[in-house]
Amino acid sequence: MASEPVELPDDALAEVLQRLPPHILAETRRVCKAWHDAIDDRLRGSLLSRSVRGIFINFSGQYFSEFFSRPSTGPAIDGGFDFLPCMGVEVKDHCDMGVKVKDHCNGLLLCRESSYRALPCPREYVVNPATRRWARLPKRPPPLMPGFDHTAHLAFEPAVSPHYQVFLIPRVPWRLPSDGESGDDDDNPLLELEWPPASYLIDVFSSVTQRWDTTTFLREGEAAGIVADMQLDWRYDPSLYHAVYWQSALYIHCQHGYLMRMSLSDHSYRVIKLPGAGGLIVYSNHHLGRSSQGVYCAILDGSILDGSKRLQVWYLSESCGRIEWVLKHDTRLKTVYAQ
């Protein structure tokens, strides 16, 4: 007579399951409730990519993200998107559809369909390349402020929750339309409003509710300027401006030399001047990043007289109730090859 199967203790079960590759581990969540709970409670971090076979690069003027890799002897994650609907066989044959990585956070990618031809409503996805699992985002709501644009940023902390959020941050366009009365673009009353506003309305998608909802963030401290100061240079490239997520706060690199720190715990935000920013101009040579210690900003200045470039790395200190940039590195890089 066959005996009843013996259930493994939770620790032993987790020890066995964590030896599986991430994409297989994700599938085993469906085996039974015990395995589902063990993976979500103990192995959530194992579902994320610790090692990728290469890097994604968005070249200026290119419609698709390029993935660069080299052979690896250890386990790694392939960066291909062949599992997405827009990368199916029938689409690949046309060679004019692809994917562009718009943002990333702790192993998740925010991607958007891209094409050489205009797409009326490109689909957006949140993708985990480790598990090859993806979710399509609902259509974006229209900008809350007419005439404005918005950029999307991803917030995800697997140590806290398996769920993620996508934030649509309003952005002042290159030029606002006229108010409809005078016909003069410079007479638009919006130009005199504070920016960012004291009460900031943000559309947020949550993987919990599976919908876009409007959330109000209240500003602490002063604004960066007025809307008229923020109208963009026509050369503005949104792909050069990024955000990082650190300890329940989203740090967004905005145009014209400032950083916006959005606290997701109390829905407040603060404007922080970027290091080396002397005024309200477009600062595309600032590059935001994050390490295990916090938020960093790298500044790469143009060529100096001897052909080298100056590289500075600043750390954002938020201790003792003060927020200030601390210079960590200041060096010069010699140009090996210049075209």
Automatic annotation (TrEMBL):
<dbReference type="InterPro" id="IPR001810">
    <property type="entry name" value="F-box_dom"/>
</dbReference>
<dbReference type="InterPro" id="IPR036047">
    <property type="entry name" value="F-box-like_dom_sf"/>
</dbReference>
<dbReference type="Pfam" id="PF00646">
    <property type="entry name" value="F-box"/>
</dbReference>
<feature type="domain" description="F-box">
    <location>
        <begin position="2"/>
        <end position="51"/>
    </location>
</feature>
<protein>
    <recommendedName>
        <fullName>F-box domain-containing protein</fullName>
    </recommendedName>
</protein>
